[in-house]
Amino acid sequence: MDRVYDWQYEKTGEAPIISRFNGFMELAFRESMVERRYDPKNLRDELRRLTGENAHLSLPLSYVHEDGTRYVSPSLVEGIDDDDVIYLTRTGSEHNSFRRPVPLAEVLGKVAVDENGLVEITEVHPSPTIERVLGEKPVDTFRLIFAEYGFRWYGPRLYRYHTPVEVGVTAIDTLLDEWRTRTDEIVAAGTLLMFDQLRLNKHLQNRFQPTQQALEFMADEPGISGAMGPLLTARAKDGWKSMDKALSDIMKFSSLLVRRPEREVMDLYIKYLTQLRDVTTDYQRLILDIQQELAG
After folding, report:
1. pTM of the model
2. pLDDT at res. 95
3. Phi/psi class of residue 79: alpha, beta or left (left: φ > 0; alpha: ψ in -120 to 50)?
């Protein structure tokens, strides 16, 4: 709901475009998520205790990219059995797995510690608000989430609490400028580090794909499409198709650029990133029109 506007550009992170606000994470931290630090020596017992309390745990584990660079990625601990097998769910740039059984000793050997030698674990507990929202009809669910995230319409302008929502593509413009500036450097190096590969495609996909999934669902869900009306529903389907093509082109030419970091390929990637930027302008307007129509 709030992923396609209120952006800021990030030069140093793997995600080049992030949202200034994240309504879901604010709700989760308010009701569901608790961060605590543990001594690695006590980690085995603490993991058993927490999973026994039906908590899910985000555990920081250390890995090595294919290019040799080290990184830390969280894995979701979903349970531990009596044989010291831990069940992990992981989504990342190189690996995705669901409830994968791993020996607990192996996991403990990969745990990342902070500067104080402690392991920071995020505990995830049930959220009363999320449970309530999931029990509603889809169109009412949308309205509850909209209000829960602090959104309000004041005339033609959308606010989050008392702050106007900023809508625009300046962050993509800045990203385009970065790639243009770095073209000579990339061509001369003849390779792209994993950091750049993630910025080329994966985290751009992450920026839009959740909204794409929601848009596709809303256009096909009778209650929501009925509330939107036929014209807005048709716009939603057309907007989904346009964004799907733009994202597919980004995936195609980023993959080609990773294999062939040449000037001609870089120019093609920039061309299609520019097209994504242009599609995004109409896409943002569509999302705002849907939110205004459904806010009730």
Report:
1. 0.80
2. 62
3. left
